[in-house]
Amino acid sequence: MSIFKIALLCLPLLAIVCSAAPVQAPESQTVIKAIDTEWPMTPEYVIRDDIQAYYENTVDEVLSVRSEDILNWLATTVNSHSTEQTLRPQAKLMGLDDVHDACLTMMPGFVAKHINQINTRLYAAVEPSVNEFLPQLWPDYAQTNQMTDLDAKTIHPEIASSLYSLNQAIGSRLMEITTEYNLSEKIVDDMNLCNAHSQTETASTDLWMYVAKLMAFPRLFRDQLPNPRLAEESRLASSFSDTNNGSFIDIHLKSVYSSLWFEFDNRMNDLFSTIQRDLVDGAIEA
Q1: Which segment of 9-23, 83-97, 185-199, 228-242 scores lowest on mean pLDDT?
Q2: Which of 30, 62, 94, 177 is the most exposed place for a label (fewest CB within 10 A)?
Q3: Separation of CA 48 from chain center
Q4: Alpha-carbon distance values, 275 to 56, 112, 130, 145 (Å)
């Protein structure tokens, strides 16, 4: 399930947030580039495109699985008993000691809204980050077309070093964006605003029931099965309800961080293989 289909699942949740601003997401999961048929696919373009696709696919998959974790958990708080027993202790962990019942019921909607927004920001940050860091950390990547066929069959140590440095730079940039967004603070602000307005209307639990039914059909909107490593992590995820582990927002963010770093490093060989293949193809065509 891509992050943009996760966003579709969020729509019923967002409907209960009266003051939520519309969220703009990229028009498509796949970044489609208009390429003139006469424009030669130079190694410079192909390698840069491979690297961007590597990060976009990894970010999309990690955010999708991790978001599905927390949305599935939130869907279990659809009745008043679960809301009181599960969400009120979480609200207190976030410094919200006196939350109106109606606002507490709206809390999952606030969470869904901000997870959608932060996911969109992270995905959108990949392309400009690649554009910024690739020339800095692999300055001669544009000259790879000068390699011989033999050279292209072996990843050079300097290329490997450059790509690992790029991994660190992109990962750190995504962490900075997440930290600057301050997910917990935004949720607290929404909750405080709700309390200040003394909203006493009962939020629609029918919408939550609808979401729960959607999530009862696994893979319903999924284009393909997720990476098995991520699926295993999802099944073994820490219980969001256990306040001894910190707030569920903290658990979610830690899970996103660890999964992104793990997948960036673990899939690096796949990126090496893709670049090797493209370099060989380019050398043969030359």
Answers
A1: 9-23
A2: 30
A3: 21
A4: 16, 37, 15, 12
3-state secondary structure the chain: CCHHHHHHHHHHHHCCCCCCCCCCCCCCCCCCCCCCCCCCCCHHHHHHHHHHHHHHHHHHHHHHHHHHHHHHHHHHHCCHHHHHHHHHHHHHHCCCCCCCHHHHHHHHHHHHHHHHHHHHHHHHHHHHHHHHHHHHHCCCHHHHHHCCHHHHCCCCHHHHHHHHHHHHHHHHHHHHHHHHHCHHHHHHHHHHHHHHCCCCCCCCHHHHHHHHHHHCCCCCCCCCCCCHHHHHHHHCCCCCCCHHHCCHHHHHHHHHHHHHHHHHHHCHHHHHHHHHHHHHHHHHHC
The letter for the amino acid at 184 is S
Give the tens place of pLDDT for each residue, 164-177. Answer: 999 999 999 999 99
Over residues 62-110, the pLDDT tens digits come to 999 999 989 888 887 766 677 888 899 999 999 998 899 889 988 999 9
Tokens 């295993």 belong to residue: 232
What is the distance between the alpha carbons of residues 157 and 267, in angstroms, rounded to a whole number? Answer: 17
Report the candidate in 168, 178, 187 with the shortest Cα–Cα distance to residue 66: 178
Burial of 101: CB neighbours in 10 Å, binned 0-12, 13-18, 19+: middle
